[in-house]
Structures are given as structure tokens and as C-alpha cells.
Amino acid sequence: MSYKSTIKDVAFDAGVSIKTVSRVINNEPAVAKATKTLVLKSIKKLQFKPNKDAQGLRSKKSFLIGLLYDNPNKYYLSDVQSGSLKACSETNYNLVLQECKNNSANLITKVINFINLANLNGVILTPPLSDNNKLIQAIETLRIPISFIAPPNKSFEIWSSATDSDAAYALTNKIIAMGHSNIAIIKGHKDHSASKLRYQGFCKSLEEHGIKLNPTNELQGNFSFESGYKLADQVLKKKNRPTAIFCSNDSMAAGVIKYCYQKGISIPDQLSVTGFDDSMIAQEIWPSISTVRQPVEKMAEHAAKSLIAKIGGDDSKQNLTKTFKSELILRESLGKAPS
After folding, report:
1. Which of 16, 80, 286, 306 is the right S-S partner for 320, CB 3.0 to 4.6 Å?
2. Are the CB atoms for 281 and 251 separated by under 8 Å?
3. Following DSSP, what letter does each residue of 265-295 receive, concatenated?
4. Same structural domain for residues 199 and 256?
5. Do 197 and 98 have their domain in common?
């Protein structure tokens, strides 16, 4: 049987106390950078692997953070999960996922029970949970830090967000510049603050160009592929159908494109379609979708990294809030308005 290095071996090799090694392992503050480097070098040299259960008992930490979500868009969730896991991989923390239906009657009870049973050290809230004030207040009573992704309220201590309204405004300007004036919008989930911001940016552009939004061109989606397909059937059966549809995410835009393919509506010759987020489906579908690239993975990585820093008391050097810029990505689904 091969010998397994102990924390005492690491302390002896690095020439420091066992307590100092423990502080480095637990990502605690008040350890000099040079000392931390020395200890980490010894850990690697001796191939020492900390016992996480023992760590948790000594530090009263589980080294677990929770990612709470309620979003029908699997592409968005994949990016959030990937970014969060990347942050965890650089520390001793593990990520626990929990789906939570925002409108369920037992939401708060379910979340509080989950946090307590898993002994979470902190949680990341994604939209629309990050918009739910009653849920937030309930979690705050547990006295654990909360990190928010795209919250409507920027007064929280830890959050990451993007420029939804400005990006929607810029994309709508581009649609109008291509000669479109009869433009429909498929809005995102009504409980998401991002949906409201994207709608605001869209309307701002129309207003500045003197274009009045036809009420029948304003459609309520929920960020799912199915809602895009269903609402395309509704709006494209009109006699005076729109020449462009602004979809509040890529999944709904893909639903519109599938409908058009089945009905023989040529994109972009007869109809232009745009999305939002630049998820994988925007690049994989044909025609590929003109959209807004939001660095969702980076937003999630920042949210998790900031949360872990707060838990470890090492947040004084960490910028706990950050707004990420969005970028227009123009592809084949957007073309000139038909003459």
C-alpha cells in the first residue's frame, strides 16, 4: 500500500505550521502570498489530497455552493453551469444544481429545505429566481451569501449582469437600417427582468425611428423553442404579416425558423428573424441566426468566483459586481426588407 501524505508532512516540507496549511487549503484570508505559494508547491510535490469531510468539520464548511434555476432554455443553463463549474474547479468547492419552479406554491419551503439539507455555504440565483423578492428574503434569513445573475436590482452585494436594453436597442436599429418597419417582437418570459429590458430597448429604437408597434405584432413567449414555433404560426398567418421578427432569445428564433421552413417562407428573403444570447443553436441552425452575444458563461464564472471569495472572507480584493458588454453578431437570418 502506497503512503499517503498528511497535512503534517506538508507543513514540515513547507516549513510552516499545520494551521497555516489548513488556512491555505480552505482559501482563508490573512495568508501571505509567498507563504501560500510555498504551501501549494509542497501540496503538489507530496501529492497531498485534503479530506473534504474533515475540512468541513474543522472549518464548519461543506464546500458546497448551490446553483438554483428555473429556465426552459437548456442552452442558457448549459452556459451558466459551465461558467460556475469553471470557478469551482479552481477552488475546493463543488457545485450542486437544483431546479426550482418559480411560480410553485411550495417554492420557498423547497429551497430552504434544500439549502439546509445540503448544508450549502452560498447560492447562485438565476432569472427568474433572481427577481423573486420573497424567495431572496427567505434565503437571507439563513445568513449565507447570495450571488445573482442578471438581477433587476443592482443594490445587491454580489452580482453579474449584461447590457440587455442597450443590446436590444442596437439590434433593432440594425433591423430598421435594413429597411424593415413592420416588425414583430416575441417577448421573453414575463417573470424575467431581462425580458423587460430587451423589450424596452426594442421599443426605444422603434420610437426614435417614428415606428408604431402594431399590437398584434407584440407576442408573449417564454424563452422556449415551442413558444417561438407557436407564436410564429399566430403572427405569420396575418394578411399584413411582419417582414421581421425580433425574438428575445435564440431558442424562440429557432422555433420561428422551423415554422417558416415547414410553411415555405424564405429566410431572409421574405422574413428576417433575430435572436438573443448567441447560444449554440444560433450557430447550428440554418440559416444561422443574427443575434446578440452575451457572455453568459463568463457572467456565471464571475458570479461563482465572487460568491466563493465572499464565503472565504477573501472578498476585499475581489470586485463582487460586474456588468458584461454584449455584442451584435450578424448572420444569414437578417436581410433587407422585401420590396
Report:
1. 306
2. yes
3. --TTTT-EEE-SB--HHHHHSSSPPBEEE--
4. yes
5. no
What's the rounded Cα separation, in Å, for the pair 211 and 337? 15
Q: Do 240 and 96 reside in the same domain of the chain?
A: no
Same-domain pairing of 123 and 177: no
pTM: 0.75
Residues 286 and 183 grouped into a single domain: yes
- State the Cα–Cα distance between residues 55 and 64, nearest whole angstrom: 12
Same domain for 183 and 241: yes
Lowest mean pLDDT among 246-260, 300-314, 315-329: 315-329
pLDDT digits (tens, 9 = 90+) for 202-229: 999 999 999 999 999 999 999 999 999 9
What residue spans of the chain are helical by DSSP H?
A: 7-14, 18-25, 33-46, 52-59, 74-89, 107-118, 133-140, 164-177, 193-208, 225-235, 250-263, 280-284, 296-311
Q: Of 107, 142, 106, which is closest to residue 123 (Cα–Cα)? A: 142
3-state SS class at 244: strand
Domain that holds residue 154: 64-162+295-324
Report how far residue 56's alpha carbon sits from residue 26's, in angstroms, rounded to the nearest whole number. Answer: 9
pLDDT in tens, 14-60: 888 887 887 787 766 667 888 888 888 888 888 887 665 555 544 56
Q: Please name the residues in contact with 319: beta carbons below 8 A apart, sequence gap of 6 or more.
A: 306
Q: Does the residue 106 lie in any domain?
A: yes
**Contact in structure between 301 and 281 (CB atoms under 8 Å):** no
Q: Of 74, 115, 83, 109, nearest to 96 (Cα)? A: 115
Ordered DSSP codes for 34-61: HHHHHHHHHHHHHT----HHHHHHHHT-
- First-to-final CA distance of the chain: 79
Per DSSP, 326 falls in state P
Q: Is residue 333 part of a domain?
A: no
273 belongs to a structural domain? yes
Are 167 and 292 in contact by the 8 Å Cβ rule? The answer is yes
